[in-house]
């Protein structure tokens, strides 16, 4: 039998009872990458990631993978999932994700952001981590994040145009519809270690 989704009222809208309204900055931190000019790269197995994806390889990694890289300058908002350890250059952010959140879910979520709305430069497009951290989202429980990610992120909906009065909110399609009832009303799950793993600078790990 399909379980009926119970909703609660929030200042934004009605959401499932076990969901929260949070700032992106409450669940992840966007950190600046580090420059690595092509002339300084030594051939190796670790991806070098620029604002629009992998641009080369190096013998050394800067960040422990798997992880999420977001283009912050030039090509803003390109969101890349990197399976291995990697080196994000200085035109990117990499995400450090707090415990009990699915990195795969957050990859899908970040991919829905209309990043051009957050451009803070008149010339070369550029993003500010502080501005991105202030975006408000609906956050499912961990096991529901896993379910959404496993469904391919198809339930994630693009936010409405930027609204200064109430902020930007990332909605989920069919909030009380069959997709969520069928794919997200699941028993609690501990998930995999990979889902709970956070990207972090290698020097903090080794």
Characterization of the model:
- This protein has 206 residues and is α+β, with helices and mostly antiparallel strands.
- The protein contains six helices and 14 strands.
- A four-stranded antiparallel beta sheet has the order 4-11-8-9. The protein has a three-stranded mixed beta sheet with strand order 3-12-13. The chain has a three-stranded mixed beta sheet with strand order 6-5-10, with no helix packed on it.
- A hairpin with a 2-residue loop joins strand 5 and strand 6.
- The relative contact order is 0.20.
- About 21% of the residues have low confidence.
Structural shape: globular
- Work out the helix count: 6
Unreliable stretches: 154-197
What is the first-to-last residue Cα distance? Answer: 48 Å
User: How many strands, what sense, and barrel or not for the largest sheet?
Assistant: 4 strands, antiparallel
**Overall mean pLDDT:** 78
The helix content is 10-25%
- Spatial order of the strands in the main sheet? 4-11-8-9
Structural classification: alpha+beta
Gyration radius, rounded: 18 Å
H/E series: EEEHEEEEEEEEHHEHEHHE
How much strand content do the residues show?
25-35%
Q: How many beta-strand runs?
A: 14
């Amino acid at each position: 039998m399909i379980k009926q989704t119970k909703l609660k009222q929030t200042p934004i809208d009605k959401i499932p009872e076990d969901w929260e309204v949070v700032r992106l900055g409450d669940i992840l931190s966007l950190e600046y990458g580090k420059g690595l000019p092509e002339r300084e790269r030594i051939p190796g197995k670790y991806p070098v990631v620029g604002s629009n994806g992998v641009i080369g390889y190096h013998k050394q990694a800067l960040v422990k993978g798997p992880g999420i890289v977001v283009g912050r300058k030039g090509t803003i908002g390109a969101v890349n999932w990197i399976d291995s350890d990697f080196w994000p250059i200085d035109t990117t952010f990499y995400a450090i994700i707090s415990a009990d959140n699915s990195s795969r879910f957050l990859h899908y979520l970040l991919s829905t952001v209309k990043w051009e709305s957050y451009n803070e430069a008149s010339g070369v497009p550029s993003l500010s981590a502080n501005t991105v951290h202030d975006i408000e989202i609906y956050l499912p429980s961990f096991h529901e994040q896993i379910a959404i990610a496993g469904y391919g992120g198809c339930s994630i909906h693009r936010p409405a145009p930027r609204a200064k009065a109430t902020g930007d909110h990332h909605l989920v399609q069919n909030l009380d519809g069959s997709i969520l009832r069928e794919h997200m009303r699941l028993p609690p799950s501990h998930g995999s270690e990979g889902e709970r793993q956070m990207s972090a600078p290698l020097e903090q790990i080794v």
